[in-house]
Amino acid sequence: MSKDTKKVVRVTSITEYKTLEKYLEKKAAMGLMLSEIKKNILIFKKVTPRNLTFNVSLFYPSTPFDYPDYEEEKYYRELCEDSGWKYCASNEIYQIFYKEENIDVVPIHTDSREEYRIIKNIFLKTEFIAMLCIVLMLAMSFNQAMGFDYSDLFSNRTLFVIISPIFLLVIGLLLYVPSIIWFIRNKINISRGNELDFISYRGRLVLTTISWSMIAVYLMCAIFGITDGYKNIKGIIALIPAIISFIVGRYCYRRIKTKKNTRKHNIIFVLTVVIITTIIITASFTMSIMFTIGSFNGNDFIPEKIAVLELSDFGISDVPQRLRSHQKSSILVPEYLEYYESLGRKTEENEITSIRTTYIKCRNKSIADYVFDGYVEKQKKRLEKRISEYREYGDIEKAKAEEKSISKVYNDSWEADRGYYLSDNNSEIIFQNDNIIYILESDIDFSKAKIVNICEQKLNQ
């Protein structure tokens, strides 16, 4: 692009298209004259500043699958030029004309009822579809967010799922509520015989600034969440569906508008492309899941910066046959580590064959309290379910034994702010110190003084 031209991206709702006239007039007064308009891209060329009056008229095919009727557009253009207006530019929706501010020409009038009908039809064929997509995304996001769990704090991806409904709701309100209000208000104007009322240029400017700011923040959060703060670049695969959908949508749109085919032919073509695209997206989504599962399998390494329990700490000289270490983090839980060792064989009497350490460091104590309480509450619900099943099958002894599975850890045994044994043989324990939580699982009794001493010496170093 030459230095004498300038591209501007401007998204204008069909119910606010008259604000485009004021925008073009301000640009012309600044020495920028519209030379071409492609969808939402306006191309200006530098000229001598001029005081012009613009008129934007609406044109749109019967359906999105129809090839444009260029003969009708040409006839309308000639009609306006015969009335004294000068042709400026056009796209698939707008025909734009202008005149010198001090020159009188025949006004381009549209009956208010007819203009309202045209705007409504174009809105239903274009923006209404996008509105339904946002509503669908909003419903899906709320459904996912309703299943919020303490473990969702461990990943930026799941945190994004939680905040996503709020962003989508605000964006949807900013984008489409003004249009809905416009239809209601002007339905009343028509019934009273008044002209259509459009939002002011300044009002549209404020809404546009807020809307695009929210969209920009939402997209940054989406990328940050999907890639897990750039710690998991494999997560970028999850963006493939959106990228493919955008490319395919643009391709179908251009083909329909540039190749003269019947509506039936275009519908069949789009359906075929959608089916093929769905297969590709499904494949990419499957790959994303596989990569995610692969990342959860962890790596065979012993953490250096975080203290974890090892079989060797308990006098086991055999080399572990299974060793897994998995790390993740989020803005609320900067460090999450799960480390596991196992001898890979059946347990003999009084033998330690496996040990699992889960280390959780939260941003502050309040978040740690929430995670701790959430984990214990989930264990209690699982216990209640087991007890209920035992009682249902008449095994009262096991039911009574399970009732004592979860018990409080007292400070005279463990040096911790609080803690719980989570099994009847005390082989699982959770304890918290300020903003740090440890969860230990093994085939040993964590209430024995000797075991407690080994654990505290290793974990508190």
UniProtKB/TrEMBL annotation:
Q: Name one Pfam family in it.
A: DUF2812
What does the UniProt keyword field contain?
Membrane, Transmembrane, Transmembrane helix
Q: Where are the transmembrane segments?
A: 122-142, 162-184, 205-227, 233-253, 265-291
Q: Which residues form a coiled coil?
A: none
> Which InterPro entries does this one have?
DUF2812 (IPR021359)
Q: Which domain of life is it from?
A: Bacteria
The protein depicted here goes by the name: DUF2812 domain-containing protein
